[in-house]
Specification:
single chain; mainly beta; 141 strands; 6% helix; globular; 18-stranded parallel barrel
Length: 1632
């Protein structure tokens, strides 16, 4: 303000004025208390001057000071209070309202307040932070009101960074129909403003109209606006830096206020709170709006974040209230927090938010993203656009696609972090989806497109596509979608991906499910689901497939008054594991290939007749015609029965893939059996029809072929029939086989129409024909095409010429019949044969001609040779130097299809193959065992289940090599080891280059090397992939799979692989889960050493061990962890640390394993592109046994970098204090959960862990007492760990588990959901376990038994006892319940004690008594009030000697001495300690004095006694090893007995009553010494076991008649600590 204006202003103002009334009338309504947090600087460009004013260069509004700016008419009035001014010369003074501050001066806020009221014009500036002074204070803007006319206020003097600045913005809302609202505004759109700490509070002044729609606004504006200062991250893990915590800024917007926060540039909330109860609009006009995850948002009003030309990033968690809205609008909107709301919409908000039905609206004009950190849970989701991508978790109870929205959509994608090379999977559940609206007036035409690019399926409870005039459409554009219920009245289009129905579904008449133009489109009716199709299921361009695991019903037409067309299905392929119900006419069911798997069923109806007639009411259909392709392993039924008659029409294909028995198959198309045993009554191959046997056996009763060109081809199997079946018969007169034209049911086979390829048989049953001549069977052999290489096998029927040629079981090769075999030929030894060719052969063995040579070749030329013999199979006699040495021949092959098959036990063969060319020949060990005495070099190798191929050693002890090759026809260049290949000293090479393929979520291993039996090799070299599954095991000293993969386990089974050294390639271990997510089978792999560029990957349900070749090492170590293998899906918030399940395990021992090791559970190999390092994914485990690795940090476990993802488990077993384990020699990133035994007592150094080193050290023992851990025996456990005595200490398993988070009952989940140590539970467990030696009741029960025995003796020595002089024999029986439920420091016992005592004494004439007694009893005791529950069975044996002397008939002195042994068998069930013995021995000595006084006929006997008892308890083990000191116990019973004698009918009856108090002193506590086997330390514990001062009352009666006496007594004992004894005594005595 210039000098002239100040003068004018002073004149106008005149004399001293009082504060403007408006100032005192300003009162913020609902304004919260302001919390000032730092220092603020404030500069003001105008002061108030008067004639006596002082001009200051600057002013400071300190703590408690204020500067109030008001208006008086047209004048602005400044009223300072406590404001200190500083002059140009540095002197200071307290400002008055007349003083001024020069225009270049500054006002500084230092804890004070600047108040600007409505109508005032204040153009000064307030100083921001400087290097030496931080801003700290409050600015209050108050609108004012006069006569319903509000006066607004604007202040623009803020710029820069303010450490602490509180803003109070109070507005005036006018009446709805009249008046002018008063607004407030602070800031300047051209100036940056950063408020680090403080509170922005809005409110209304006192006269504001509540609830009015004529509202003012409170506004803060700037260029770049920043609220709060976020906590800085540190390190690669980005954890919060405790040295840079940042500061919070809090925004509180009142319910009746519209707050606008507008930035021309970036507008951001970095840390603090947004509390909105009114209307709050946060806007950036040219840049972005951001709310970080360090901001808490509480909104019950309308909160709108808008980036007009930029993006909105909302990273905070948000829970919608019952009122209000959250609207996010920008080019790109990113949501990265947790969202909980009743309703969420992707699309535009209603311009009138009072009419917006959704609590949250996300409206990106270009895109919306729920990023990987988001977790959105809403009841209703509305989708109006197609701009949203979900990378995180989205769960909706219901999803609605607004009527008429033609481009609604949702994209789901996993988040891939390429730098860290891991995938964070998205998880989306859309609840009940409705496309379109059933409301009146709905137009339809709604389209919703789901594009799922994530690994997990998008899930929905139901999908309803509503029927409207314009069809509504649900479209799956990519990926997997799973829905519980489907109601389709419009269109469902599957462009690509899998649409899976898991519950009930219907496709209504007129509705359509389209498998679009993509081979990847598939419709799945899952197991247990059903789909009723009355509409159309169609495909485009013969694409798409359908899988039926449940039931798919293609509904028939409905006739009548409201006819409905039949459902139709058109697809490239349908695969059935459940039930498919449909007619097979092409108009209804037009599917190129239908596959009925073993469990599948096709329910259909007959549609043709075998006689060729058109079915009608008179000519009922009796067969099923197949016009497309059906592959059958399950069954086809009609009217509930399996179809028996089939017609394969021209162009149709019928493949049988499992064992079947049918009546008739009529073939005009293609019929084949594949590896199946099939029986047909009739096989009728028509013109242009073909039948094929590919593996297995086809049994045909009647075979018909139309012409030689219509052949039955046996490729690799057996065609079995009879002479009649071929249309032939045997003429016994001429001994000739000829045509049969007369037999009913005879076949009719054209000449040459049967083709027998290599390794195939025509198995012919000649019935009663016992012998034929080779010259008279031309009619039979003529049925087989002349170029056939297979054999006609006539079984037991002999061949005349062959029988004649056999001598001593041998036959010359020239005497054999080409193409014909029988049982004789199959076992004969063939001589003078160097080659088999033209036809297959089956012999017993082959002896070649003698030769003076060290080796001789035998050639198999493009046929199959089967040798059934034992011993030497192919040999010759070496006649060199005149010797005759049987020598094994070398087997050679001319072509890849040349084959050697062996079946005998103990068979021997020489070299197989030429030793170099592995492209020719195959070896099939079909049964028995074969030893190869030379190298094996062949194209393919198969060892059948139960068979064995052994490779012999050469003269130097080295095993011969085994090599399979690569041929053009890859399907034959494989190694299939279903039995055993024993080559432990040999180099084995599998040369096939075929690799596994991945499709539809599974691997296919067609033509890949497979081991399902057992393989042992010194070295194993693989040129292609290999599968080890179905329980197969491989042991290899070295494994070289350069560029290839060994798969261990498949989707149905597991395998085992042991490798000494992995020199190249990768190993992938991944069987699958059961339907209940448990492990179906576990694959095991162990690799001792590996080079750097190898990879071993542990997938689902697998345990991989590295550093050892023992596959059981990892299994044994894992069994101790308490975890199990089971599917654990982190996308469903399942975490191993909570579920105690993991997807896979990597176990490591040894040092410096050099290969890469991966672990995850995603079911695919290397999907995250990890190819190096040791990487353990979420919910997988890295397991290390500290006793098997270096614990001095000198040598690392791995050489490559180790990385553990979040939620991975790092389990270290057998850790001891001081261990330092270096995980890797390279920089590592160790996240996840570290689990180890004893983690309550031992900590892992965090700084070392971040460096990849696990350093374990004890926590300070003194701290535990501070935490409240004071339980008995804790010191022993601590010492065990401190001294490293925990490792391998099986005696301490209970305590090791107790102090470990993963196994302790004291590590519990609290109400906040977090797991913490419950010190009360821990102390209870420790105290109760430590006190078991007392709480069993062993000492207390023994003492009860001693007292019972003493009471029995005391009754015999009492002055009141009726006895006769001389010998008295007596028997007492005692029984009762003795309880002290809290006597043992809060715990106690309850015991039933029963005993019998037999005694005898002698009473002398002088009144003295001397006697002895034997006590035998039992006790049954249960502990009370302790978690260490015990039950104890006791056997009691005691012996006493007693005596007494009566003086003057009134004084009686008695004494006794006794011994009692309690043999106690205890069972502890609270903590599973089981059975143990805690025997107690008691020695007791007592004296007692009585005085008899009389009151008439009543006897009164006061008595006083003293008893000493010594208890000795044997040591035992139950948790702790417990030793108990001997206890010396003294009792002083004091009491009085009252009795009387009555005579009646010869009986003397004496009732009595006794009342006693028994003070007890001495060792009432049991002193326990607690230890653990193998631990040098011990601890002490004292537990009260004997109660004090019990009060006892006895009521009884005795009766005497002559020499006999009887007595009956009841005794009640009570005391403190719930002491209650109830006992009974019965006795009988006889005096001699």
């Amino acid at each position: 303000m210039n000098r002239n204006f100040k003068v004018v202003f002073s004149k106008a103002r005149g004399a001293l004025m009082v504060v403007n009334e408006a100032t005192s009338s300003v009162q913020a309504k609902g304004t919260k208390t302001v919390i000032a947090a730092a220092v603020a600087a404030l500069s003001l460009g105008a002061g108030v001057a008067s004639a006596a004013s002082v001009e200051y260069a600057s002013a400071e509004i300190g703590s408690g000071a204020s500067l109030t700016v008001t208006v008086d008419g047209s004048n602005t009035v400044l009223t300072p209070s406590g404001v200190v001014g500083t002059k140009a010369d540095g002197t200071t003074g307290t400002m008055t309202k007349e003083d001024t501050v020069v225009s270049t001066g500054a006002y500084t806020l230092s804890g004070g307040e600047l108040i600007i009221n409505g109508g005032a014009s204040f153009t000064g500036t307030v100083a921001a932070d400087t290097a030496t002074k931080k801003a700290n204070g409050t600015i209050t803007l108050n609108a004012t009101n006069k006569d319903a006319a509000g006066a607004s206020v604007t202040y623009t003097g803020l710029e820069g960074i303010y450490s602490t600045l509180n803003l109070n913005l109070n507005v005036f809302n006018a009446a709805a129909t009249s008046g002018t609202p008063g607004s407030v505004k602070i800031g300047d759109s051209s100036k940056n403003l950063e408020l680090k700490a403080g509170t922005l509070t809005t409110g209304t002044i006192a006269s504001s109209v509540s609830g009015s729609t004529n509202k003012a606004t409170a506004e803060i504006t700037g260029s770049v606006l920043t609220f709060g200062e976020g906590t800085k991250p540190i390190g690669t893990t980005q954890e919060p830096d405790i040295n840079n915590p940042g500061s919070s800024y809090i925004v509180n917007n009142a319910a009746d206020v519209t707050l606008k926060i507008t930035g021309a540039g970036l507008t951001r909330f970095m840390k603090g709170e947004i509390n909105n109860a009114g209307t709050m609009e946060v806007t950036s006009t040219s840049s972005n709006v951001r709310v970080t995850d360090q901001v808490a948002v509480n909104n019950t009003g309308d909160l709108t974040l808008t980036a007009t030309a930029g993006n909105v990033n909302f990273e905070s968690d948000y829970t919608a209230g019952t009122t209000g809205h959250l609207v996010l609008k920008g080019n790109n909107v990113l949501f990265a927090g947790d969202l909980t709301a009743d309703s969420l919409k992707f699309g535009s908000a209603n311009t009138d938010l009072t009419k917006e039905t959704n609590q949250v609206v996300i409206d990106g004009t270009i895109s919306n993203t729920l990023n990987y950190e988001s977790n959105v849970d809403v009841k209703t989701l509305t989708i109006e656009d197609n701009k949203t991508t979900v990378n995180g978790v989205l769960k909706a109870d219901a999803t609605a696609i607004t009527d008429g929205k033609q481009q609604a959509g949702l994209t789901v994608a996993d988040d891939i972090n390429p730098s860290n090379k891991f995938v964070r999977a998205a998880a989306v559940s859309l609840g009940d989806i409705t496309v379109g609206s059933a409301a009146s007036g709905a137009t339809g035409g709604t389209s919703f497109t789901l594009t799922n690019n994530a690994e997990n399926a998008v899930e929905a409870s139901s999908l309803t596509v509503v029927k409207n005039t314009n069809a509504n459409t649900f479209k799956l554009d990519n990926g997997d979608f799973s829905v519980g219920k489907l109601t389709n009245q419009g269109n469902v289009t599957i462009t690509a991906g899998e649409f899976s129905l898991t519950g009930e579904g219907s496709n209504a008449s007129g509705a359509e499910i389209t498998l679009a133009d993509s081979a990847a489109a598939s419709l799945v009716v899952a197991e247990g689901a059903s789909l009723q199709n009355q509409g159309s299921i169609v495909n485009n361009n013969s694409q798409g497939k359908i899988y039926v695991g449940g039931t798919l019903t293609n509904a028939p037409a409905v006739t009548g008054t409201s006819p409905v067309a039949a459902g139709t299905i058109k697809a490239a392929a349908v695969e059935v594991d459940g039930v498919l119900s449909t007619a097979l006419d092409t108009a209804t069911y037009n599917v190129t290939t239908t596959t009925i798997n073993t469990a599948g069923e096709l329910q259909t109806s007959y549609n043709a007749r075998l006689d060729g007639k058109t079915p009608s009411t008179s000519d009922v259909a009796d067969a099923l015609s197949i016009s497309k392709q059906i592959d059958l392993a399950g069954k086809i039924t009609a009217a509930g029965a399996e179809v028996q008659k089939y017609i394969v029409a021209a162009g149709g294909t019928f493949n049988l893939n499992s064992d079947k028995t049918f009546d008739t198959v009529q073939v005009a198309g293609t019929f084949a059996t594949k590896d199946a045993d099939v029986t047909l009554s009739v096989l009728d191959v028509k013109d242009a029809g073909t039948a094929k046997v590919n593996g297995g056996t086809l049994n045909v009763t009647t075979l018909k072929t139309a012409a030689t060109t219509n052949t039955v081809t046996v490729e690799d199997g057996t065609l079995a029939t009879s002479l009649t079946g071929l249309g032939l018969k045997y003429d016994a007169t001429t001994k000739t086989i000829g045509a049969d034209t007369t037999t009913t049911g005879a076949g009719k086979v054209a000449t040459g129409s049967i083709v027998l390829e290599t390794s195939s048989l025509l198995d012919l049953d000649l019935g009663s024909v016992t012998e034929v001549s080779k010259d008279k069977i031309s009619e039979l052999t003529g049925k087989v095409e002349t170029s056939s290489k297979g054999l006609i096998d006539i079984g037991a029927t002999k061949i005349t010429e062959v029988e004649a040629a056999i001598t001593n079981g041998k036959i010359d090769s020239a005497d054999l019949v080409a193409g014909l075999t029988n049982d004789t030929i199959k076992s004969v030894t063939v001589t003078d044969l160097d080659e088999v060719k033209d036809h297959d052969a089956i012999y017993g063995a082959i002896e070649q001609a003698d030769a003076a040579a060290d080796s001789k070749n035998f050639t198999i030329n493009d046929v199959s040779l089967t040798l059934t013999g034992t011993g030497n199979l192919v040999s010759y006699t070496n006649t060199t130097d005149g010797k005759k040495v049987p020598t094994l021949s070398t087997i050679k092959f001319s072509t890849p299809d040349s084959e050697l098959v062996t079946t005998g036990e103990g068979a021997q063969i020489g070299q197989i193959g030429d030793g170099s060319d592995a492209a020719k020949g195959s070896l099939y060990v079909k049964s028995g065992d074969l030893t190869a005495n030379g190298s094996v070099t062949i194209n393919s190798l198969e060892v059948a289940s139960g068979a064995k191929l052994s490779i012999a050693d050469d003269k130097d002890g080295k095993g011969y090599d085994v090599t399979t090759g690569f041929a053009a026809n890859n399907d034959e260049s494989t190694a299939l080891i279903s039995g055993e290949l024993a080559a432990a000293n040999s180099a084995v090479t599998f040369g096939s280059t075929v690799m596994a393929t991945y499709a539809d979520g599974a691997y296919s291993f067609d033509n890949v090397n497979q081991v399902t039996g057992k393989l042992a090799a010194k070295t194993l070299t693989l040129k292609g992939d290999t599968l080890v599954a179905q329980g197969g095991t491989v042991e290899a000293g070295k494994l070289d799979a350069n560029g290839k993969t060994v798969f261990v386990g498949d989707s149905a089974s597991a395998g085992s692989l042991s490798v000494g050294e992995l020199t190249a390639g990768s190993i992938y271990v991944d069987p699958t889960w059961k339907e209940d997510s448990s492990a179906a089978a576990v694959s095991l792999v162990a690799v001792m050493k590996a080079v750097a560029d190898t990879v071993v990957e542990a997938g689902r349900s697998s345990i991989v061990s590295v550093g050892t070749n023992d596959v059981t090492a990892g299994t044994a170590a894992f069994a101790k962890t308490g975890f199990t293998l089971a599917k654990t899906d982190d996308t469903k918030k399942e975490y191993s640390i909570n579920t105690k399940t993991v997807n896979s395990v990597v176990y490591a021992e040894g040092a410096q394993y050099a290969g890469a090791v991966l672990a995850d559970g995603n079911g695919t190999k290397n999907t995250d592109t990890k190819t190096s390092g040791v990487s353990i994914g979420a919910n997988s485990m890295l397991l290390i046994d500290a006793t098997k690795v270096d614990t001095t940090k000198k040598t690392s476990v791995f050489t490559q970098a180790v990385s553990l993802d979040d939620n991975a488990i790092l389990y270290v077993d057998n850790v001891k204090n001081g261990d330092k384990i270096s995980l890797s020699a390279a920089a590592s990133q160790i996240r996840g959960n570290l689990v180890y035994e004893g983690d309550l007592l031992m900590g892992a150094n965090k700084a070392d862990r971040e460096k990849g080193v696990l350093s374990f050290e004890m926590e300070d023992q003194a701290d535990f007492a501070k935490y409240g851990i004071t339980g008995a025996g804790f010191g022993v456990i601590y010492a065990m760990y401190e001294n490293g005595e925990n490792v391998g200490n099986d005696n301490a398993v209970f305590f090791r588990n107790l102090v470990s988070t993963q196994t302790s009952a004291a590590y519990q989940q609290f109400s906040n959901g977090k797991y913490e140590w419950n010190t009360q539970t821990l102390n209870t467990i420790l105290n109760d376990v430590a006190a078991i030696g007392a709480t069993t009741g062993a000492q207390a029960v023994t003492m009860d038994a001693v007292n019972q025995m003493a009471d029995t003796v005391a009754a015999r020595t009492s002055i009141l006892t009726q006895r006769a002089q001389g010998v008295n024999v007596w028997v007492d029986v005692n029984g009762g319940r003795f309880e002290g439920k809290k006597v043992m420091d809060g715990a106690g016992y309850s015991s039933d004690i029963y005993a019998g005592t037999l005694g005898a004494d002698y009473q002398f004439a002088n009144g003295a008594v001397l006697g002895a007694a034997l006590t035998i009893g039992t006790a049954d005791t249960d502990s009370k009030g302790t978690t260490a529950k015990t039950s104890m069975d006791s056997d009691l044996v005691g012996f006493s000697v007693y005596g007494s002397k009566t003086f003057a008939d009134i004084w009686n002195v008695a004494g006794d001495i006794g011994y009692l042994q309690a043999s106690n068998d205890v069972t502890e069930s609270g903590y599973g300690f089981g059975d143990f013995s805690e025997d107690v021995n008691a020695f007791t000595l007592g004296v007692r004095g009585e005085v008899l006084t009389k009151a008439g006929s009543v006897n009164i006997v006061p008595h006083l006694g003293l008893r000493y008892t010594r208890l000795s308890t044997d040591s035992f083990k139950a948790g702790f090893n417990t030793e108990i000191d001997d206890q010396n116990i003294f009792q002083m019973p004091v009491g009085v007995t009252v009795s009387a004698d009555f005579e009646t009918s010869g009986w003397t009856i004496a009732p009595k009553f006794d009342l006693s108090v028994v003070p007890t002193f001495g060792d009432k506590d049991a002193d326990l010494k607690l230890g653990i086997t193998g631990v040098s330390a011990s601890d002490d514990l004292s537990v009260r076991v004997i109660d004090s001062n019990p009060v006892q009352a006895t009521l009884g009666v005795s009766a005497t008649n002559g020499a006999w006496g009887f007595g009956l007594n009841y005794k009640l004992g009570v005391g403190s600590d719930d002491r209650m004894n109830n006992s009974f005594n019965a006795n009988v005595r006889y005096a001699f």
